[in-house]
Amino acid sequence: MSILVVGSVAFDSVETPFGQVEEILGGSGTYFSTSASFFTDVSLVAVVGEDFPEEHLDFLRSRSIDLGGVKKAPGRTFRWKGRYGYDLNEAHTLDTQLNVFETFKPELPAGYEDAEYVFLANIDPELQFEVLQQVRRPAMIACDTMNFWIEGKRAELLKTLRKVDTLLINEGEARQLAGEANLVKAARSILAMGPRTLVVKRGEYGVLMFTEHSTFAAPAFPLESVYDPTGAGDTFAGGFVGYLAATRNHSEANVRKAIVFGSVMASFTVEDFSLNRLRSLESKEIENRFQKVKLLTEFEGIG
């Protein structure tokens, strides 16, 4: 197997200036695994409730995602409700119902412990650490977190970060984690916590990557129609880790290329609600948009 992802599978209710939807397919594990499946094999560990429709599982299977680690538990599936204003970089949470996700304990099925790439989606850092105790010798461990865990379980999060190769968080989370207003200083502080690479997701403003010796910036692809940014960060992570897993090349140049592929995947997600755009996406569209993003920052030999 190539990538193991541990995260949530959920129902989302989303309101943006461009529409409103109720109880659509969502969750960090869902967005990540769907995005990564365009590049390589993915195995998902998550929990759903008895109310979770088989058609959603069929969609994930249609992407050749291994669902051997998805358990159906008594109770209702995790639900999130949020609203976005015209600043689509910020979600306002209206309601969160953890339901079966509240007692979720990730247990890896046989064979999953041999995963070469591991992505720990935004879940309790104690659970993230439990997953790391079950895997053997992955080539890369990447993880996400959020302000809730940074504030409420900082010690547990720092314990997990000492075992992580790449941390993917947004700009506000980076500043909060480091206790630094300046993003460059914040990055230096976070890298000292353990990760060798920090990827800062900045929504429509693109992505920044920091390592001990380098900094890289990639733009977001400019879009005429943005309907729903929910899951864009997890879709980015899926493209990023998916490309690295497919190429098995961790060179500086290839990591930068993976960041651009992550940005490309996120740009498709925001063009519609839920995973609707990814359902119809074709590989040739991904490659075409990748080439367009490259042209956004090309300046030598022009003019």
Automatic annotation (TrEMBL):
GO terms for molecular function: kinase activity. Pfam families: PfkB. Keywords: Kinase, Transferase. InterPro entries: Carboh/pur_kinase_PfkB_CS (IPR002173), PfkB_dom (IPR011611), Ribokinase-like (IPR029056). Residues 17-274 form the Carbohydrate kinase PfkB domain. The keyword Transferase applies. SUPFAM superfamilies: Ribokinase-like (SSF53613). PANTHER family: RIBOKINASE, SUGAR KINASE. This is Adenosine kinase. It comes from Desulfuromonas versatilis.
